[in-house]
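Q: Sequence in, structure out?
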Amino acid sequence: MKNSGYEKNNTILYTDFLGLGYRYLDVHTNVLLVFQNKKNLVKMWSTVVKWWPDDEIKMRFVDHTDYYDFVLYGESRILQSNWIFMKSLKTSEHYKRFKTESDDTAYLGFAHYTPKIEEGDLFQLEIFKYRKKVTNVLFLNESDAEQDEVVVQSRRIRSYE
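A: Exactly. Output:
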């Protein structure tokens, strides 16, 4: 499977998504991986994330001054590989709200971004029904991140790109 990152020891770093969206209508916030390419979105769900056991998915947010690093880690015994989705993102009001209201659990979802469709629209976001429950969500500062195995592993792999 083609990926947009680096592969080392059956761990694949994937960075080919636009960013994150947040949706607050459920008991737990939905954290949406936002893709511009619908084909990549469907492929990442059906060949990777769908096979992750919910209770083994790890989601990390590492805070910096005006941005944060998002790290999503999952492993699959069926696929015999580990995947890390990683992206540095500008801190937004939506992120701050999610962080404040978080109970260390989130629903992971997928959304397709389409730029301006009609006059007056900024964009269209199609939210897919794909969903995983993530119960291992942590917000870390930089010193804590250096002790977190998921963050350390993702940074090590990214440094080989």
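The chain has a mean pLDDT of 90.
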